[in-house]
Amino acid sequence: MKIIFYTFYYLIQFTWGILQNLIGLVYFLWTKKNRLEFYNGALVGFHKHNWGGISLGIFIIINGAKDNQWIRNTMIHEYGHTIQSLILGPLYLLIIGLPSFIWCNSKKFINYRKEKGISYFSFYPERWANYLGQIISKQKIIESE
Description:
Layout: H1 2-13, H2 18-30, E1 35-39, E2 42-47, E3 53-56, E4 59-63, H3 68-88, H4 92-105, H5 107-116, H6 124-137
């Protein structure tokens, strides 16, 4: 069953989702990583820079200097973004990538979340990524206390 899933996962990613996968490949090769691993078909590279993670097609890059629980939760979340790429194909960057990037990095939205006590994961691309990541990976994101 896994062989069938992975076959379709890669086939769809590299046809329907080719744009974000090409960008992801270039970014993945450009980013310095200290370790690599596969997570449900996605290629995960761990960096030690001062930012969290990004997912472009099958390529996931996350901060490997964080604690194990954060890494696990982030892998599940970013994997959810790879599933969004499968679903949305060429629309992924417009519907998920750009809004997610702005929500994460805009000082206006960072301050808004802090002032209102709003979770980063309340915004639709992030909430949906958590949902998909947990459903498809069959792992639960564990909320920190």
